[in-house]
């Protein structure tokens, strides 16, 4: 793979990372609802999920999803239901702090956020289909396929990991401005709303 081709892929990956999608919305939801530590755990989970999705697409699963409307729909709705359900749980939990000055219940744990975004990143069907259509353009037929594919996977995960981290830190900083039990409750509700929005965006994906 020539260096200028790799730089082109870096630029494309950075653009994809900056544009908000279901993954970014879920990270923002965790940041606003549960703080920086949980948000960064969700970024790590998304990185693992992206690596898995990209590997699956390069292994041929993306072609299967592109060809099978049923398989695409199953993965799409499973991801959407998960995100919406998690958003609803976050909002319901926030209500425990909305009455009588009682502190809000425990937020989503870092482990749950990590595992949740591993699932979101891995099983987002639009991502897998996109990879199988987009990434091969940067692979030279004259070079070793596996080494080039591995380089692109590492590059994409690294670049998007940086943009996801920026979103996580910025959103968590904004949430720190909302001090006090009442504002904390609304902060968590906003985070739950962002997770629900991520689920809706996933459900809206078309094959």
Automatic annotation (TrEMBL):
Q: Where in the cell is it found?
A: Cell membrane
Annotated GO MF terms: amino acid transmembrane transporter activity
Q: Which of UniProt's keywords are assigned here? A: Cell membrane, Membrane, Transmembrane, Transmembrane helix
Q: What is its main location?
A: membrane
Q: Where are the transmembrane segments?
A: 6-32, 39-68, 74-92, 113-139, 145-169
Membrane topology qualifier? Multi-pass membrane protein
Q: Does the keyword Cell membrane apply?
A: yes
- Top-level lineage group: Bacteria
Example GO CC term: the record gives: plasma membrane
The protein's matches in InterPro entries, at most eight in alphabetical order, are given as: LeuE-type (IPR001123)
Stated name of the protein: LysE family translocator
Query: What lineage is on file?
Result: Bacteria, Pseudomonadati, Pseudomonadota, Alphaproteobacteria, Hyphomicrobiales
């Amino acid at each position: 793979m020539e260096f200028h081709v790799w730089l082109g892929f870096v630029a494309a990956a950075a653009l994809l990372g900056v544009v908000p999608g279901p993954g970014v919305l879920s990270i923002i939801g965790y940041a606003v609802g549960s703080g920086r530590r949980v948000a960064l755990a969700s970024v790590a989970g998304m990185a693992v999920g992206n690596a898995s999705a990209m590997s699956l697409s390069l292994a041929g699963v993306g072609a299967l999803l592109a060809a099978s409307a049923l398989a695409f729909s199953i993965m799409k709705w499973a991801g959407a239901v998960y995100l919406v359900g998690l958003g609803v749980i976050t909002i319901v939990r926030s209500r425990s702090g909305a009455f009588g000055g009682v502190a809000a219940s425990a937020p989503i744990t870092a482990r749950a956020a990590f595992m949740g975004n591993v699932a979101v990143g891995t099983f987002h069907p639009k991502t897998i289909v996109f990879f199988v259509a987009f990434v091969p353009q940067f692979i030279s037929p004259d070079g070793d396929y596996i080494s080039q594919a591995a380089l692109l996977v590492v590059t994409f995960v690294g670049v998007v990991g940086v943009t996801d981290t920026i979103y996580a830190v910025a959103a968590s900083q904004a949430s720190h401005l909302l001090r006090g039990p009442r504002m904390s409750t609304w902060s968590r509700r906003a985070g739950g709303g962002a997770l629900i929005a991520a689920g809706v965006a996933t459900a809206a994906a078309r094959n």
